[in-house]
From TrEMBL:
Primary residence: membrane
Location within or outside the cell: Cell membrane
Domain of life: Bacteria
The species this protein was found in: Rhodanobacter ginsengisoli
Keyword Ion transport: no
Residues of the full protein shown: 350 to 579 of 586
Protein's recorded name: Thiol reductant ABC exporter subunit CydC
Annotated keywords: ATP-binding, Membrane, Nucleotide-binding, Transmembrane, Transmembrane helix
Keyword Nucleotide-binding: yes
Domain ABC transporter: 6-230
Name of the encoding gene: cydC
Amino acid sequence: DNSLTIRDLRLRYAADDAWALAGVDLDLPQGRRLAVVGPSGAGKSSLVGALTRLYPYEGSITLGGTSLADWHGDDVRARIAVVEQQPYLFDASLRDNLRLARPEASDEQLNHAIAQAQLDDYVASLPRGLDTWVGENGIRVSGGEARRIAIARALLADAPILLLDEPTEGLDAGTAARLYKALAIAMKGRSVLLITHRLGGLSSLVDHVATMEQGRIVSCVTTEAYREGA
Ligand code: ADP
Ligand code: ADP
């Protein structure tokens, strides 16, 4: 059971701060594709921070009925794969950076993830292919490439839940459109929590849309109902 249940989730950055998350209730049943949409300051990043256990929180987050707080970091990462805007690229080859998600990955698994993340042409264009250095002392990686590297890692991690953090933020429309294909493939057979301040074309990827305002979920409807209401 990989259902994710969030109850009365509260988070603040200092004891005398206002609550950035002021009692979030949210359900992600297995197989659901849910977008969480809200304006700047609504609490979206704080929600991602709680889910990735970057920030301490009050209330409960359970995965398959077990509190996330009781899990080891590795076990959380095996169940929730995060596609970050700026994936961490350490000073090493692209191959090693991808393998971070699954150290024992075979070349075949690596190539499959690369193809699914729509990175084939990119890897082919690199001077040393997968052995090209991408970290601090390596080649520059564009926003769209970075996002697809994050998707390839998520595919290698093969987690049942995909957490997408503002996947098209800062990308031009053409780059964003190309990313949809990789995202749609990565989402197949997985539950998805998509965090974004602007749904736009991403709406075609989800079946439900939750709206966040001032640290709370104020509505959760089907994508169809959301489109009619918007
Ligand atoms: P969003 O991602 O939707 O823009 P955030 O989760 O970043 O929202 O912010 C929610 C609230 O928490 C805002 O009032 C914001 O100012 C506050 N906040 C966010 N990060 C910090 C931080 N590091 N320290 C103090 N307050 C913060
Ligand atoms: P905009 O507001 O600039 O249209 P969108 O995120 O809605 O931003 O779309 C960005 C680009 O992606 C547009 O060119 C749009 O036609 C295209 N697009 C939108 N949805 C999809 C999709 N599901 N698959 C492929 N391309 C899409």
